[in-house]
Design the sequence.
């Protein structure tokens, strides 16, 4: 199975949101990483046919079959697609369970089964998915009464319902607490072995340990595309822990790219995590790189949820 993206471009007036994007994806997790406005959402809206590309094409291939243009496939491709938008629209008066049954009907789950068999099949799949995203205990609650984090998990649940071959998630962990974020990351990893999963995010920690490849975008252009460990090798020996006094912090921030500031509780110093080609000071010690360090190395800014 492959999703082949060939030379896709899209502009909004003079703003080139996506420029000659090409990639070939097979089962696994792919992260689209970049600051706001980098083209992540534009690309996934083109893949999901919510937006038309100005040029280029996207092909889907199953097994030994010839690749087909997803626009020509139409419904046949959409049946294989699960999509979690960044701002999902939901029916506030629906219960969680009713909404999931509604989505199952839209996806035509259990097509060809007898009525009772189909009902049991769908009920089992809905129960399985709601349990995985920790919403099984609120299945009867109105969507309008859910917290933001619960709505986010429900959006993920409807995306994975029906076992899609291609799963596209736009900022899937926004609004989740740390425990929920880890749980959702683990769940995505678990179901990704036989799926092409595309995660668009600007929160580096969401994908550092689960992505097969990281596709880094700036102003619609791919600036890097490699497995996380390969990216980290490129900045080995360039990340430093630099102890300093509080009065030195501002000056050092102006001089170096600082990815983190922490207090050394033992010695009372401030510890700066610094990106530098050369050792920034005699007292600095080399640190093991993290993906956020590489993000700063490429984009010149620290990622955040905002």
Sequence:
């Amino acid at each position: 199975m492959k999703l082949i993206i060939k030379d896709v471009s899209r502009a909004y007036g003079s703003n080139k949101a996506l420029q000659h994007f090409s990639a070939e994806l097979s089962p696994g997790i792919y992260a689209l990483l970049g600051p706001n406005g980098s083209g992540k959402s534009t690309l996934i809206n083109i893949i999901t046919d919510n937006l038309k590309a100005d040029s280029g094409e996207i092909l889907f291939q199953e097994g030994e079959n010839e690749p087909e243009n997803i626009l020509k496939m139409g419904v046949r491709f959409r049946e294989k697609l699960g999509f979690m938008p960044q701002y999902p629209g939901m029916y506030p008066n629906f219960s969680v369970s009713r909404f999931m049954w509604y989505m199952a009907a839209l996806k035509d789950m259990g097509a060809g089964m007898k009525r009772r068999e189909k009902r049991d099949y769908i009920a089992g799949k809905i129960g399985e998915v709601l349990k995985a995203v920790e919403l099984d205990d609120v299945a009867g609650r109105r969507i309008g009464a859910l917290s933001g984090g619960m709505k986010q998990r429900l959006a993920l649940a409807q995306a994975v319902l029906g076992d899609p071959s291609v799963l596209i998630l736009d900022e899937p962990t926004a609004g989740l607490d740390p425990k929920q974020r880890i749980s959702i990351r683990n769940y995505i990893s678990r179901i990704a072995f036989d799926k092409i999963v595309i995660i668009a995010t600007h929160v580096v920690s969401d994908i550092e340990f689960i992505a097969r490849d990281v596709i880094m975008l700036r102003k619609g252009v791919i600036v890097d595309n490699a497995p996380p460990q390969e990216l980290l090798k490129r900045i080995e020996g360039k990340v430093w822990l630099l102890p300093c006094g509080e009065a030195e912090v501002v000056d050092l921030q102006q001089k170096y790219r600082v990815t983190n500031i922490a207090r050394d509780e033992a010695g009372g110093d401030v510890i700066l995590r610094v990106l530098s080609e050369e050792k920034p000071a005699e007292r600095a010690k080399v640190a093991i790189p993290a993906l956020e360090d590489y993000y700063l190395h490429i984009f010149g800014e620290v990622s955040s949820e905002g």
Remarks:
- The first strand starts at residue 2 and ends at 12.
- Residues 59 and 69 are 4 Å apart (CA to CA).
- The chain has a mean pLDDT of 92.
